[in-house]
DNA sequence: CTGAGGATCCTG
DNA sequence: AGGATCCTCAGC
């Protein structure tokens, strides 16, 4: 069984954590006890001073977790429909996090919406789809990433994977910053194998 | 209290 | 290309 990722490992700049998280495992234990694992294949970094970062205009109720200690979840609600999962990074007071955009699940999670049955590899291909598949909502905002909360991370084993670094997706500001990483050749990346928008 | 916008996703 | 859908925050 792989080693669990600790808070101090996340206590670095988001741009350092984001590529290191590729190939690591996101683990979700549902209330029923069922455990689903997924290999993280796509991440984005959001930094202090970054206009696209939710923390850019200071702390609010919504983004409070980003200013807290590293190794905690930040889950937000977007477009009236989707939730997105982040790992909070860096020191207390630094509003920064890594968005988990896609994971390749090792098993089919329970209670999937009927529509999502098609491609197993793509069940969590995209930040909104990932949270829907793993049943994560704002109740999971601000929780330490550890087994007791039903959501945690495990280190990868073996050699570092081959990464592609490119620009982030879906932004109206700071679109030029190359702070998105994905696993080279992965078919579980959001929007197929696209690079940017 | 009001309104504008958003780190998405699916359909046509 | 456009629509669904609603929370959040800034502004009045």
TrEMBL record:
Belongs to the DNA glycosylase MPG family. The keyword ATP-binding does not apply. CDD domains: AAG. Its EC number is 3.2.2.-. GO terms for biological process: base-excision repair. It comes from Vasconcelosia minhoensis LEGE 07310. The lineage of its organism: Bacteria, Bacillati, Cyanobacteriota, Cyanophyceae, Nodosilineales. Keywords: DNA damage, DNA repair, Glycosidase, Hydrolase. This is Putative 3-methyladenine DNA glycosylase. It is an enzyme of class 3 (hydrolase). It comes from the Bacteria.
